[in-house]
Automatic annotation (TrEMBL):
Entries under InterPro entries matching the protein: ADH-like_C, ADH-like_N, ADH_Zn_typ-1, ER, GroES-like_sf, NAD(P)-bd_dom_sf, Quin_OxRdtase/zeta-crystal_CS, Zinc-ADH_QOR/CCCR
Localisation per UniProt entry: Cytoplasm
Name this polypeptide is given: Zinc-type alcohol dehydrogenase-like protein
Single Gene Ontology MF annotation: RNA binding
All copies of domain Enoyl reductase (ER), residue ranges: 13-334
SUPFAM superfamilies: GroES-like, NAD(P)-binding Rossmann-fold domains
Assembly behavior: Homotetramer.
Principal cellular location given in the protein's record: cytoplasm
Keywords on record: Acetylation, Cytoplasm, Metal-binding, NADP, Oxidoreductase, RNA-binding, Zinc
Pfam families, A to Z: ADH_N, ADH_zinc_N
Superkingdom of the organism of origin: Bacteria
CC per GO annotation: cytoplasm
Amino acid sequence: MKAVGLTRYLPIEDPASLMDVELDQPKPGRRDLLVAVKAIAVNPVDTKVRAPKEGEEPAPKVLGWDAAGVVEAVGPEVELFQPGDEVFYAGDITRPGCNAEYQLIDERIVGTKPKSLDFSQAAAIPLTAITAYESFFDRLGIDVEGGNAGETILITGGAGGVGSIGIQLAKLAGLTVITTASRPESIEWVKQLGADHVINHFEPLRPQVETLGLTQIDHIALFNNTDQHWDQAIDLLRPQGKIVLLVDNKQPLDQSLMKRKSATMIWEFMYTRSMFQTPDMIEQHHLLNRVSAWLDSGKLQCTANEVRSPINAENLRWAHQTLEAGHTIGKIVLSGWE
């Protein structure tokens, strides 16, 4: 089967950083689906795993953790899907990724593809939707059914992949959404997605929040640059509030303000359930099906902003380079095989 892989961890400008390769088609284990991959999306996690470092892989390593496709075959204990089903999923970072014509994926972290979206549109959704959903409803404890309606949430990096779906999920739960963006095109993007207020993350946050008539914020989701936003975010967080983080910090995070406010800091890592085979691993299946239904009903909109074809090393290198530049709006998707 066709795939894109790496054997060495190189700068993305190097043609050998991601290469077109031929691999054997895998066979499903007991709860695996064998999925014929039709479209993939690219995320910062891909660039982080691929980033230059020492070491060489004995066989091509396949990255990619966002896909939509068709079930080709199933393992002997599969109960949720059958061949021919159209699915979407974000995958498992401990297994080969979706940058291949066929991929094995545990059925418990797979959802039914939204009927209203094509494969390219559907591939843009899973990783960011799982991350934002778990951040808000599992980690911060916000009521998905609207029990926290009217409360405020600050989402940094609103125009990014997680922010783009996160704004919509927060609005679906009835929250007042304040998000950060700095360029005219990113400001317009987050407003279209439903953000109530947009502030500039390159300027002091408190004065901008106070111009909205607020002195504190109920919930905070740092979806980009933890170090840059930490002190200002904790200053704005209400006493006994919670803050969720996605991006690794490079410097120590001052906890003194957290202590005085009896505040809670929580990390979100969407691979935790699959990595540790947690007893509630199937919750990602239910989560994706709920998101799929919201997309089909029009309560959520697709966040794909650029689609290129085909899926190959050249286009994947371009996508990685674009993400590493740090100015992406929405999601980058690659579709189809040559």
